[in-house]
Amino acid sequence: MRALHDPAGWLANGLSIIRERYAVPTSFPKAVLAAAEVAARRAPSEHIDRTARPFVTLDPASSTDLDQAFAIEAAGSDWLLHYAIADVAWFVTDGDPLDQEAWKRGTTCYLPDGKANLYPPLLSERCASLLPDGDRPALILSVRIAPDGRCRLDGVERALIRSRAKLGYETVRPDDLPPGFDAIVRRLTQAEQARGASRIDPPEQQLEKDGSGTFRLGYRLSGPAEEGNAALSLAANLAVAQAMLAAQTGLFRTMPAPDAKAEQELRATAQAFGVPWPETMPLAQLERRLDPRDASHAALMMAIRRAGHGASYSGYHTDELPWHAAIGAPYAHATAPLRRLADRYVLRTVHALAQGKPIPAFVRDAFETLPPVMARAGARDAQIERAVIDLAEATMLEPLAGCTFAATVTDRQGERAQIQLNTLPVIARLALPGAMPGDPVRVRLRAAYPLEQRLEFEAVD
Question: CA distances (Å), 326 to each of 153, 199, 234, 284, 403, in order?
Fold first, then answer.
């Protein structure tokens, strides 16, 4: 990460401009806050007592909107993952002001200087969050994980839980985690490989604000604890998807695989970066060999991610299997209801199925109305994320106008190429006719416009 010096105040002003441009909410309407006050006083009355089970949470150390907690137990040759998810539906009633506002927002929107929550902080960061300061209502997904890593949903129950510890990605030690954590992650990794999953996590540019108020820009790599936690969440989401698929209902996360033309272009990119890719090797197998700490591998990983057609939401349809190519299986989002609107409806679905009860009509109706809502929220979040990075890059480079940089071409579209500076965490586009991925180039920064989130580079002969 690289500290950004900003005596002109470009970052603060630029973030304000981005918030206004994308209509990021700055507060909640009074009716929504009043509804949250009422909801916060709603005592759990339909929840079995599971407070004796040793749940823990694992998230970024600074997080307070904790969706998930987990406990693990051995079950013969299987492992049982008890994945507790914040019971948002206990606090939010269909059609109430909290629900109506959540449908407008879709997701929690994150910026470096603060976030716009999906639900008021009284719920999302206190009463509904699985913090280790008291009992919380939750939906426990009990997922059975076989020796070969296959996952099955054994049960879903509304329960009262008590988290024993708030573990942080940055500070957790191996002995803080419950026995079986590493064994489950190994099984899930084995299962991913067996089904040909192509899930990749390239390093991403990130602008963050530290405790001293300093902004830092750099490339972020996930560590072992974060990857392990993501594997547990993946297991729960896979099991949920299978349960809904068996009942021929639900809301799924889908993604097509790169087509033949895209894969051919990726092979050319891999060759340009000097990454070996035998003709007989499937793309998924190549991806498992890529190391995000290697610059060439990281650039190829980002090219692979862009080569797909993006993920979307889809209700169940009898004429089409809801397939997620990167996961290599049907997949659903269920584990982040404090931050994603759709998850609340998926959880309502699997809870009803597990209890042998009919799925409420308003939940079924939501399977068709949620996809465009989530698509709009996802597009907004992606645009904001890109604008924030563009702002940070322009702020960092504004004093360096006229300087020349060594860079590497990472992608091209028509006559324009995407480049990555070799010594700074900056990605930009400019006209480079004939340039191919992997080519080294030298570029000059003509000007940087922080408040417009724009850089102007030109090629140097």
Answer: 21, 5, 12, 8, 40
Q: How far apart are CA 22 and CA 40, in angstroms?
A: 30
Give yes or no for a contact between 148 and 192, defined as CB atoms under 8 angstroms apart: no
**Max intra-chain CA distance, the chain:** 72
> 401-461 in CATH: which number?
2.40.50.140
Cα gap 418→121, rounded to integer Å: 39
**CA–CA separation, 402 vs 447, rounded Å?**
7
User: pLDDT by residue (tens digit) across 103-125?
Assistant: 999 999 999 989 999 999 999 99
Q: Specify the pTM.
A: 0.90
Of 96, 101, 127, give the one whose Cα is nearest residue 116. Answer: 101
Nearest to 113 by CA among 243, 208, 222: 208
Residues 429-449 have pLDDT tens digits of 999 988 888 888 999 999 999
Residue 316 contacts residue 244 (beta carbons within 8 Å)? yes
Q: Report the candidate in 24, 31, 32, 33 with the shortest Cα–Cα distance to residue 105.
A: 24
